[in-house]
From TrEMBL:
It comes from the Bacteria. Signal peptide: none annotated. GO terms for molecular function: diguanylate cyclase activity. This is Diguanylate cyclase with GAF sensor. The keyword Transmembrane helix applies. InterPro entries: Diguanylate_Cyclase, GAF, GAF-like_dom_sf, GGDEF_dom, Nucleotide_cyclase, Rev_trsase/Diguanyl_cyclase.
Length: 576
């Protein structure tokens, strides 16, 4: 996007330079009018025809007009060539459907055309070129054409690179695909321009027809070929993206990768992924606007509600080229600047599981083949998301306690082994372990029932997790026991944490429903815990010993000495 300030700069430069420059060209390089001035209109017609058959390579619009403009320059001089190129530019911008907000492209391209035409024309004159004596019958004339063409090509590419950097903040590759296309086209364009010049001298304006028909036929075939080539490239890219998506094992990573890659295939300023929740509503799970992920504070949509709801209900993708087409359909949130919209259902097993909506501020930004490509990508997304979610669920079930949501003992054993290895590699100075056992837990089950006992375990797990946060790892050790692993935490710090936890458990009553009492009355009960603390390398030489010593401290130092206490392994040994 070009900022408003830069647009003002472009128009200012154009206003100062171009009108005065064209007038100067008229006086310094007056037009060489033919005996039949209407002959010039045939060449202008050729140029307009070339403007109506452009194609885009690397977001650069290419129209093969140089063979005609070169002939116009050789026949009628620099002023007429500059004038005709500006008329050509008007038709080119009309053909590419330049919208109101992009009108700055006319002065920008006008400046480029003037500079390039002036440089190449001056080079022709500097090399000794003269329109009156130029016939293309002498070897020197051929050198003049080659020099003129090279200056034109180099000047054009240099201008594109400079202006792209200054106004679009885009650094163009020195040998991008668009430059290769233009360079290769010179092999055809230069001889074609020379042939047009010679034929016109021999047979007149009929030469524009004789060369124009084969040129436009080839240009049409090239456009078809390039369109097919683009589709094939995008299909190959879509396949590569699909493979990348299926390699990701986390749902969030899948969505991140999809959003990153979709912007390389189609123009996107706004993108939204919505998930079908319980087959009742569409809920936003990703919101991308102007290169950033935004908050998801947008109301859910019902089936057939708004554009996304309609796509969900009909199971059919839609493509809108402007706001006028979708304004009556849209409901809920949609940025004011949006024009083109592409909305596709995310299908799995013939069922809509989500909706992707892509949008841009440009009119007519999307074409039908892009709809097909995005539809294919959405199929890959659906499969990758399902695989990732299944993996995450399986992983969670294998690592987490179903009751409390904490890590289970099996996962904790693997984790403490890894963390102890970090200690051995001196990446940690300390590794502390806190083991917690709920006092008289059996009496809670006997008095209030096992369901209430489970409520207590869940509540304790929540308190431990909230308090520890990212400081350590909380796991359910088994039954009514919990364990906390504290990487790089000293024994003194661990004892302080343990004492805070003991007070937090003992002083804050737990709320539960009495399952065994009629009407399920709420009850408040107080619970205490016995806690053992051990540290490596101070108390243990391996991770299994660290666990045993924390367990020993908890049972011998806390349980046997009255419960509701914190005990460290070293003090027990010292008191032997």
């Amino acid at each position: 996007m070009v900022s408003s300030a830069k647009k003002i700069v472009i128009w200012t430069i154009w206003t100062i330079l171009i009108p005065a420059g064209i007038v100067a060209a008229y006086f310094y390089f007056p037009p060489l009018l033919p005996e039949r001035p209407t002959d010039m209109l045939w060449f202008l017609g050729l140029m307009i025809g070339a403007a109506l058959m452009p194609f885009v390579v690397n977001r650069t619009t290419i129209a093969f007009v140089q063979w005609i403009s070169m002939t116009v320059f050789l026949l009628y001089g620099l002023f007429i060539e500059i004038l005709f190129m500006h008329i050509f530019l008007v038709f080119l911008l009309l053909r590419t459907k330049t919208r109101k907000g992009d009108l700055y492209r006319y002065p920008l391209n006008s400046i480029m055309i003037y500079i390039v035409s002036l440089l190449s024309g001056l080079s022709f004159y500097a090399l000794g070129g003269d329109h009156q004596t130029f016939t293309l019958e002498k070897p020197f004339d051929l050198l003049l054409v080659i020099g003129y063409t090279l200056i034109y090509f180099v000047g054009n590419q240099a201008s594109l690179m400079l202006f792209s950097r200054l106004f679009y903040n885009v650094k163009r590759r020195l040998m991008g695909k668009d430059i290769v296309w233009e360079l290769a086209s010179l092999v055809v364009i230069v001889p074609l321009g020379m042939a047009l010049f010679i034929l016109y001298k021999e047979i007149g304006v009929i030469s524009t027809v004789l060369l124009g028909i084969p040129f436009f036929s080839v240009a049409f075939i090239l456009r078809l070929y390039y369109s097919t080539d683009i589709v094939n490239d995008h299909l190959q890219l879509a396949t590569e993206i699909g493979h990348e998506l299926t390699q990701s094992l986390k749902a969030r990573e899948v969505v991140d990768l999809f959003m990153k890659r979709i912007t390389t295939i189609v123009p996107v300023s706004h993108a939204y992924i919505l998930d079908v929740i319980d087959n009742k509503e569409l809920q936003l799970i990703r919101r991308y606007e102007d290169g950033e992920n935004k908050s998801l504070d947008i109301e859910p949509l019902l089936r057939y509600e708004g554009i996304s709801g309609m796509v969900w209900g009909t199971k059919k993708a839609v493509l809108y080229s402007s706001k006028a087409e979708w304004e009556s359909v849209a409901k809920g949130y949609m940025p004011e600047s949006v024009e083109s919209i592409l909305c596709v259902p995310i299908m799995r097993n013939q069922k809509v599981v989500g909706v992707l909506l892509l949008a841009t501020t440009e009119k007519r930004a999307y074409v039908k083949y892009q709809l097909m490509i995005v539809d294919i990508l959405c199929s890959y997304l659906a499969i990758a998301l399902e695989n990732a979610r299944n993996y995450e669920l399986t992983k969670k079930e294998s690592e987490r306690c179903a009751l409390t949501g904490l890590y289970n003992y099996r996962y904790f054993e693997r984790l403490i082994e890894q963390e102890y290895q970090m200690l051995l590699e001196r990446k940690y100075d300390n590794l502390s372990l806190i083991l917690i056992d709920i006092d008289h837990f059996k009496s809670i089950n006997d008095t209030y029932g096992h369901q209430s006992g489970n409520e207590v375990l869940r509540a304790i797990a929540d308190r431990l997790q909230q308090f520890i946060g990212d400081t350590g790892i909380v796991a359910r050790y088994g039954g009514e026991e919990f364990v906390i692993l504290l990487p790089n935490i000293s024994k003194k710090e661990a004892l302080s944490i343990a004492e805070t936890l003991r007070i937090m458990i003992a002083n804050r009553p737990f709320i539960l429903e009495q399952q065994l009492i009629q009407n399920r009355k709420r009850s408040f009960i107080r619970i205490t815990a016995s806690i053992g603390v051990a540290n490596a390398p101070e108390d243990a030489d391996d991770y299994l010993t660290l666990i045993r010593h924390a367990d020993f401290a908890m049972y011998v130092g806390a349980k046997r000495r009255g419960r509701n206490k914190v005990s460290e392994y070293q003090s027990i040994q010292a008191n032997g």
